Amino acid sequence: MIIDLLTTAIIINVLSAAIRIATPLLLAAMGELITEHSGIMNLGLEGTMLTSAFIGFLVTEQTGSMGLGILMASIAGILVSLILGFFSITLKVDQTITGLAINLLASGLTLFWFRSAYLQLSTNDTPLIEVLPDVNFPLLKEIPYIGEVLFSHNFLTYLAFLIIPVIWFFLYRTKMGLQIRCLGEDPQVADMAGINVGGLRYLAVVIGGVLVGLSGAFISVGSVERFFPEMTAGRGWLAFVIVIAGNWKPARILFVTLFFAFLDAFQLQVQGVGVKIPYQILLGLPYFFAIVVMIVGRARSRAPEALGEAYHRE
Amino acid sequence: MINKGKFRIEKRDQVGVGFQILALFIALLASAIVTAILINSAGADIREGFIALYEGAFGNWKKFSESLVKATPLIFTGLATVIAFQGRVWNIGQEGQLYAGAMMAYWVYFTFGDLPPGILYPLIFLGGIIGGALWGLIPAVIKARYDVDVIITTVMLNYIILYILSWFLSGPWRDPASYYQQTTPISESMKLPVFVEGTRLHIGILVALVSTAIIYILLKKSPLGYEIRAFGSNLVATKFQGFNTTAILIICMVISGALAGLAGTSELFGIHQRLKADISLGYGYTGIIIAMLAGLEPIAVILAAIFFGGLINGAFFLQITTGVPAALVQAIQAIVLLFLLSSRAIVGYRIRRVADDN
Q1: What is the pTM of this model?
Q2: Displacement of CA B286 from its chain's centroid (Å)
Q3: Which residues does chain A have within 8 Å of residue B341's beta carbon, measured at their own beta carbons?
């Protein structure tokens, strides 16, 4: 009887945690999906996420307004993505190097600003912020089991899941979505059809930036009361992997995201109950599986034809 | 009638050395301006800040020698990037390969510690080379076999190695007398010898200089180097000429990893004398920027490494004297890279007035 109760409690815990963990991955992967469909590879995902997490924390801490913090985090996401866009679309610099530079810039600047803002304090004494509260669903959250799993999250989580059909609709059922996908397959044909290649690619980069910005906001304001350097811990890279393994398709991206989210929720649970596995193995699992997923998924996925290539008009 | 013309932007066929240097100069100038803004935003006087940066880096012989000490691992990681990027292999796993090298070198020391130093020294360096090379080989094999981008595997392996290190440091290699995750100190007799009295300049930098010469000869004077550069400049054509692309990929990654492994070995036995998780201050990533700044030229890596080594020390001095966080240096590094990329892109084009064709 007690065992039964424990297992149910554990399952509910894991499910609820998985949905929470999936949030930033989904937001970032969906943003990257749109950007990559336009032919621009944003390898600076990790750095963009980190910058937004920092700005979200800083603004919330300074102004006391979570809403403003989240807004500024998404604007930071747009700005960082625009730097990447300027380099890859206008200057036509190699997109791999540009993305790397963006990540290094974000690591450096967030650390510098964080230390500048809270120089006199040690990392443990930095000010705390309030965490974004859960959405209050009056009756629904009372439902046994389901209430705890599905109705105990903040609005960014619901946004992350609701945005999937919206993005699917945008990419596959609207004219602009079709044009964006066309840019990623054959920008020359798009150009001849009268589509503004550069302009539309910038738009795709900006939409991606907003979503990555929101994922960064979730990582700081949406889940913990503090910021610490490198707090994104590879989740931007993981989102990048998810897009590839998800074959650039919204539904499969959701599936791959949930896989990683369950894995992470599961290892947290295992750590929590004190099973005798070294915690280093558990913490390293997502990175290990990122490689495994790439090995398994690479053969079954096809990138947009012109992904990562600058467009030169003939 | 005045010929009505319009301007057209076109790509230069060949970007000369003069323009390359111009691009570098513009990038450094622009970075200095942004640095000034950052120093100012942190509440310090700009002039004082720059003086502190310079003083801390190259102010006197002692400080200069310390900058050379900092440059040592950067030469290794810079070279590691040069060899990979010359072959268009996007290895960004230098940080992880540095740790893998340090760990293997430590394992050799830990296991064969009783051997006389004359035998143990070369074995330790060999260990560092093998450790780094193996950690570089994994992504190369995965790329060759499963077509997974090196960039992704190397990023993931950078995270994974730190967890493996943490496991060793909390178990088999742990110093029982210490609260921190670190090994016991390396015996005095196995410390890398200092060769300039009154400094910390150890023989690691000599190994780095010899490595530079070897990489220079390998890239510029050997058939293999020609293949690597040909592979890097045009993948399709080389495939057509029958080069073994898989072999080149694997060779690039193994040499790159070995160099990064030497960085870890030299830092562990020359400076820290304990294996712990912070023997590198992001030297792997700084190496990428150094290689780009050096235009992927091995000899120029030395100069760029001394420049950034000085910058690291300068930033520490800046923090002491003005309170501006030393993290400034990480920001400056990335800013230099971004400005360099943009100025190179811009000098790669020219604006020409062309006659209106209608």
Answers
A1: 0.91
A2: 5
A3: 87, 91, 93, 97-98, 101
